[in-house]
Amino acid sequence: MRLPGVRSRRAELRALFAWPRVIDRARAVFRSALTTFVVLTFTLWLMPGVRSTDVIDTLGLVLLVAATGAVLRPLLLAGVVALGGWGAMLLGVTAQVIVMVVALELDPSKRLSGWPTVGVAALLAVICAAILDWMADSGTEDTFVKEARRLMRGIRRRQARQSGGRLLTLRRPPQGTEPGLLMVQLDGVSEPVLRWAVRAGNLPTIGRWLRTGTHAMRGWHTGLPSTTPAAQAGILHGASRQIPGFRWYEKPAGRLMVSNRPRDAAMIEPRLSDGRGLLRDGGVSIGNAFSGDASINLLTVSHAALPGRSARGWAAFMASPFGFTRALVLGVGEVFTELHQARLQRRRNLQPRVSRSGAFLALRPASMLLRDVNVSLIAEQMARGAPAVYCDLVDYDEVAHHAGPARPESMRQLESLDRMLGVIERLAPEAARQYRIVVLSDHGQSQGATFRQRHGETLKQAVERFSAPDSTDAPSTPAEAEATAEPGFPPSPVAPLLVVSSGNLALIYLTRFPQRLDRAAIDREYPQLITGLAGHPGVGLVIVDDGGPVAIGATGNHRLVDGTVQGVDPLLPYGPHARADLLRHQEAAHIGDLVLISSVDPVTDEVAAFEELVGSHGGLGGWQTDAMLVHPAEWQITQGDLTGPDAVHRQLVEWLAALGLRTQTAAQDEVAAGERLELADLAPHGVEQLSPSRDG
Asked: Measured between alpha carbons, how far is residue 334 from residues 325, 410, 583 in Å?
């Protein structure tokens, strides 16, 4: 009678040596050897002074490279894991070059000698290998998927050993049975753009989900401000009213807050969190502005740090020849692609357009690198069995800002994000849970020539004209770049008027006054300011406190509280949600003394961004407030029309609870919050308390 352990091992051996797996491995070995042979032949041909050798010598060098890699790569991976963070990145950059250098130094034929020559040859070989591998995959992500699967299997086997399993097993870990939820945010993708791309057949993954009925798609209204920080404050914490824009000025502290600046995000998050965030029950935040009370935060702005030693997905990506090295080489290709696309726009005189040089040239490859890193981190967390993961992918948003939200180069970025969703779907069988996938966006984008292009002056200059002789100051860079471009803004002493823009939304602060001023006080200081701005052709709305918030246009005004209109209603071009959006925005913390929304073209829905961006978001008008949500078709929407990110938060929490991934229901959370509020009311007066309540 055979013992169960013997039968199990024989079954593993049969599975290991099954013909499909043997053929796959043989194909992989042959491809790797052929790639190395071609790369080495080409590299040696390019290097000056290399003695000619025959094919046998080169084949021997191929074997030497393979043997060197087999010995060194595990050691380098261990070093990357031990270093973590920046150390992992630096070692990852050089890992592939180190393998090639050692192999060339050990080459018996000594065709290359001397460190500079060997180093240049090794670097050239690594670059050629990355390009050749990408070409062999026909631009697909097949090699990336294989590396991610290897990572996931290693993690799951390690977890099994730590749980008392066998030290060595040849069997692939089966997919887990417990449910999990992956939430992938496609930054800046509006519902109309996504629907258009699906109908055009350019998004095979999302298109297949929708056509086969596994998923459904719907839009949701972001409200004001239509920015990533406000949306994620709502989606992750249910507290979007704490965020008046992408950046804003806080009069009591006398400082400008920029939500993608790590130190500022770290200060903002405690205002949002009450311990009931979307990811509180063991969830993972990847690449977001805020954490959602996650247990693990990776590349999250409010927890500014690169992944540490425990993040094997980060280490594996950095050490793999198909990870960081590949992304770095292809990123250089993105720079040349961007230069070509920008030149085409200029030669064809496409309008509207803005400059696409400078820092944006670095943003495109950085966004692509971040995308691949994020997917590698998602794969790791899927293998570890994280119950909920929320990840932000920013590729489309970055390109659309400078190219336009529906331009071909932006749509190509959207197609690459769809491929990444396909990668995640292909990795699902290796996961420790049965993950359901939800795809959503935080806002859309609206196109249009900028305020300066249309009117020959910036908003700062316009405000300065109407507030003379007092000076006005404003950041000189777009909001999303200011965290690194102007870390010391505003300089001391702060100008009497400060203009802070986020897309076609602007907040104007009278900095000499500690409180928010009403219209009477502003008119006393600057009699021409409000009427001058309201009459400017580039300004559609000026919102000010005049016995309650009032939206003022060139030929009429709209009292937001009761809906009273005098003259022509200035809200008409901004859609049916405008009044509610503006009224809610007036309740946000640290709102400006004046709030401005640019004019919007009633025919094309184009807006005039106060920043130099052809695709913008932050205010009202166009598609910037039209976000999207793709979810499993059998899941019901119970939060009405999903107006505002706080409603999306409640819907996602409800789905998590239905999957059994919340330790408390929403109703139990509300009861607990009420009890904490009662305890706070009983606290001694004069003692500062942190409010446990939400404002969503």
From this structure: 14, 13, 43
